[in-house]
């Protein structure tokens, strides 16, 4: 794995068969970087990798050729409860999570100065089960302090110490899966969300999370999901802070003092400092605020200066040649200026090897990500380029991030300002073509591709559309098989966009199919349906039958999931909830009433039975018993046809009985004054109810006015009916007297209108014997309603009606005199009621 003679790592991990021959010829280093990858579009060596995984309730078969296939788990194949890793397995996985050992001379360990107090405090808080957020600027030594704390917390938790990297993670999902894979032995299995939360809740470990990039609700979700874990979170000050209720301790990590800075500088330089160097280091400590990274880089500047000056001294010991034009007096390299010490990337890069400078150009093109040292010989074109990583790390230009290295804070910006980013597009294209060949090689295991995910994604972002499509097509199956699904989704989206720009419809359909399968595994059904339908449409246009069938199978699973979710969802509550007893007893509530079936009418007869009471004396309505304390309006006798039974729907008033009068109905349905909005707290039932007297009087007056208008309409209809000509077979003569309001004592005469009888319900039948309201057989009455009641004044003769005998063969016309009753007005104490004979109200 650490060989340096131009042999990549993928050739050292054969999975079967013979590996292809390794190119041994030296690459040309005078031109741009040359990759040993085959030409774009060439098939990868070896068979395609088909991997079967368990993803939640599904079996996922990653097929790089036609697209992944997904199906439900077969009965009896469900995975059991995963087993926890023992101490030896955890130690092996922890060592694998550290950066790899670099070829070349070993980099000396850097001392941890003036951090004893912070280390003891962190260990004490973690031992109590508290989570701590270690905040410090970039280059303050947070990672070195985490390593020191990890050694002291090895036996605090049952599951030991777990090291994770939060770089590039904005959501806690992938971190939870990484924690699950570290503690449990679950190869080729990615649990669903419910099972994942159930398993990580049982984990008790000290989690060291370096390079944290999330905060707020996302961090709260991570902490809630793992209540038995104690976290040490290392973040920069610009990272979003945790919420107030997260109960995370805050520890700030500042710079070093002047004495510690001088000690670190002497340790890095490997010799005591001169007075001039001590003064220069004091100014640098003030300018850099004591950041340890600046003094690591300053020590590298002193080492490079010593090497340059020592080489000149060695040359002076020898006698210069006759034909050499070099002067005898050697020029000493001076100390760097304060500006060069504060931003030393340019000066440091100018004094390293050519392979190291080429690696810096590649890192600038990939956004600061440095590829694994095994890839540098192919990317740089130098068989010894893998030693450049150790050289750059010793200079302080690189920093470890998880299992890889990237440029230290501020280095990429300083190098781009001096021209290291001018060839970024060419370097990114070269890296993309190399990774496209490497990720598609059959001997490269998916876990190795996942470890190089950041560099692959950076190369994908900077490459042209052709190289991006090729790289995404080969890297996506490897990310899926390695269970690094965040990188899988990112590479699929980038590949779909590149395929759309390049016009590669088949590749675009593949990427959309994979996105649909990924969304289905993560239970995002709407996204899965959209992606699969897009893929099916594109493959249908290409007449790709196998791809269309695979897409329709996955879409059928989406439909089944949607139906299952719809079946278990609760039905809508359409009925109104039952009102509580306290609300029903409230005096300010309003009754919502609906009309019941109309009251049955009394049967009509031609003549009343002897001894029967008059129509005005007959009862009109029954009054229900009144509950104690309820409000009751005065009962006004109305017609039997005008009584409407009211059925309360929701009993929300203080009235215990339904309303029995028209005024009460109007009062409940149309209140004169708007009622205030209900308050959250109910009033006590003993509160006095407002007096309804004035409101009832106004309502009754309005009802009387409406009745007068209705009576005027009836009178006008009666007058218009007298002008119509009777039918030819037997016209009926109707005489309508003029209605006048008497101002004095009425004088009864033949032409005067009938006096107003007392308030009573209109009779259902004629009140005078011999008077019939039914039409004469064989005759058609002119606009005479069959249900119109009539009243006979006490001092006027009754209306006569002549009808032919029933034995007469031909009926003869008989004039009929009909008296239209005048409006009936009854005056009570402060109450006026008018009843229409046409409507009975």
Characterize the structure shown.
By secondary structure, this protein is α/β, with parallel strands linked by helices. Helices cover 38% and strands 9% of the residues. The strands form six sheets. Strands 6-9-10-5-11 form a five-stranded parallel β-sheet, sandwiched between helices. The protein has a four-stranded mixed β-sheet with strand order 3-2-1-8. Helix 2 crosses helix 3 (142-152). The longest helix has 30 residues, at 693-722. It is globular, with a radius of gyration of 49 Å. Mean pLDDT is 73; it is low at 1-47, 581-654, 723-754 and 756-841.
Q: Estimate the mean pLDDT confidence.
A: 73
In this structure, how is the largest beta sheet organized?
Answer: 5 strands, parallel
Q: Give the proportion of residues in helices.
A: 25-40%
Adjacency order of strands in the biggest sheet: 6-9-10-5-11
Using DSSP, what is the number of strands?
18
Q: What best-fitting shape do the alpha-carbon axes yield?
A: globular
Radius of gyration from the alpha-carbon trace, in angstroms: 49 Å
Oligomer: single chain
**SSE-based structural type:** alpha/beta
Uncertain stretches of 5 or more adjacent residues: 1-47, 581-654, 723-754, 756-841
Strand-residue proportion: 5-15%
Cα distance spanning the termini = 104 Å
What's the helix count? 26
């Amino acid at each position: 794995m650490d060989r340096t003679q131009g042999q990549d790592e993928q050739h050292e991990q054969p999975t079967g068969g013979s590996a292809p021959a390794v190119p041994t010829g030296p690459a040309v280093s005078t031109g741009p970087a040359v990759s040993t990858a085959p030409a774009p579009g060439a098939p990868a060596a070896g068979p395609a990798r088909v991997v079967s995984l368990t993803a939640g309730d599904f079996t996922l078969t990653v097929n790089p050729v036609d697209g992944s296939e997904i199906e439900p788990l077969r009965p009896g194949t469900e995975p059991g409860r995963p087993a926890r890793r023992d101490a030896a397995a955890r130690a092996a996985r922890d060592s694998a999570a550290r950066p790899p050992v670099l070829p070349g001379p070993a980099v000396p360990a850097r001392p941890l100065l003036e951090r004893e107090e912070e280390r003891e405090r962190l260990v004490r808080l973690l031992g109590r089960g508290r989570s701590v957020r270690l905040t410090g600027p970039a280059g303050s030594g947070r990672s070195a302090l985490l390593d020191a704390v990890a050694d002291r917390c090895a036996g605090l938790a049952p599951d030991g110490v777990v090291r994770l990297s939060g770089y590039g993670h904005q959501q806690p999902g992938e971190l939870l899966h990484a924690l699950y894979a570290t503690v449990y032995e679950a190869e080729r299995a990615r649990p669903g969300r419910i099972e994942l939360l159930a398993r990580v809740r049982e984990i008790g470990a000290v989690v060291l999370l370096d390079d944290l990039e999330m905060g707020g609700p996302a961090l709260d979700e991570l902490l809630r999901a793992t209540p038995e874990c104690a976290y040490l979170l290392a973040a920069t000050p610009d990272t979003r802070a945790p919420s107030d209720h997260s109960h995370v301790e805050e520890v700030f990590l500042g710079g070093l003092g002047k004495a510690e800075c001088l000690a670190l500088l002497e340790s890095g330089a490997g010799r005591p400092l001169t007075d001039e160097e001590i003064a220069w280091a004091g100014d640098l400590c003030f300018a850099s605020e004591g950041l340890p990274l600046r003094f690591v880089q300053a020590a590298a500047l002193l080492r490079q200066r010593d090497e340059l000056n020592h080489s000149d001294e060695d040359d002076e010991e020898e006698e210069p040649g006759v034909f050499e034009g070099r002067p005898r007096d050697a020029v000493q390299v001076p100390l760097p200026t304060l500006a060069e010490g504060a931003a030393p990337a340019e000066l440091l890069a100018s004094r390293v090897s050519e392979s190291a400078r080429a690696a810096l150009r590649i890192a600038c093109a990939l956004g600061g990500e440095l590829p694994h040292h095994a890839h540098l010989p192919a990317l740089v074109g130098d068989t010894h380029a893998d030693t450049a990583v150790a050289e750059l790390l010793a200079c302080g230009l690189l920093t470890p991030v998880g299992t890889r290295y990237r440029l230290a804070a501020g280095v990429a910006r300083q190098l781009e300002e001096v021209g290291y980013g001018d060839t970024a597009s060419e370097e990114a294209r070269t890296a993309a073509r190399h990774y496209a060949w490497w990720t598609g090689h059959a001997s490269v295991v998916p876990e190795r591709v996942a470890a190089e995910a950041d560099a692959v994604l950076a190369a994908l972002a900077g490459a042209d559309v052709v190289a991006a499509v090729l790289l995404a097509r080969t890297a996506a199956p490897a990310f899926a098989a390695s269970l690094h699904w965040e990188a899988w989704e990112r590479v699929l989206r980038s590949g779909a966009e590149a395929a759309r720009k390049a016009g590669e419809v088949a590749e675009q359909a593949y990427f959309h199919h994979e996105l649909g399968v990924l969304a289905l595994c993560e239970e995002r059904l709407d996204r899965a349906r959209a992606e699969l339908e897009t893929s099916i449409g594109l493959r249908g246009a290409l007449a790709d039958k196998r791809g269309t069938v695979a897409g329709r199978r996955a879409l059928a699973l989406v439909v089944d999931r949607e139906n299952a979710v719809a079946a278990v969802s609760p039905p809508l509550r359409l009925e109104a909830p039952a009102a509580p007893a306290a609300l029903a007893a409230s005096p300010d509530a309003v009754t919502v009433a609906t009309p019941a079936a109309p009251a049955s009418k009394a049967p009509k007869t031609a003549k009343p039975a002897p001894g029967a009471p008059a129509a005005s004396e007959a009862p009109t309505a029954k009054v229900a018993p009144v509950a104690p304390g309820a409000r009751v309006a005065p009962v006004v006798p109305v017609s039997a046809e005008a009584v409407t039974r009211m059925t309360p729907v929701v009993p929300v008033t203080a009235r215990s009985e339904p309303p029995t009068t028209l005024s009460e109905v109007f009062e409940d349905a149309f209140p004169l004054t708007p009622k205030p909005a209900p308050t959250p707290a109910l009033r006590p039932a003993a509160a006095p109810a407002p007096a309804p007297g004035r409101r009832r009087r106004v309502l009754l007056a309005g009802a009387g006015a409406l009745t007068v208008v209705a009576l005027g309409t009836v009178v006008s209809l009666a007058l218009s009916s007298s002008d119509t000509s009777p039918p030819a077979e037997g016209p009926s003569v109707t005489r309508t007297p003029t209605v006048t309001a008497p101002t004095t004592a009425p004088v009864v005469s033949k032409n005067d209108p009938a006096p107003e009888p007392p308030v009573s319900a209109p009779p259902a039948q004629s009140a005078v014997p011999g008077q019939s309201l039914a039409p004469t057989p064989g005759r058609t009455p002119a606009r005479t309603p069959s249900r119109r009641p009539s009243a006979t004044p006490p001092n006027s003769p009754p209306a006569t009606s002549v009808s032919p005998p029933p034995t007469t063969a031909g009926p003869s016309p008989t004039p009929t005199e009909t008296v239209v009753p005048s409006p009936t007005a009854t005056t009570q104490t402060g109450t006026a009621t008018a009843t229409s004979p046409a409507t009975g109200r």
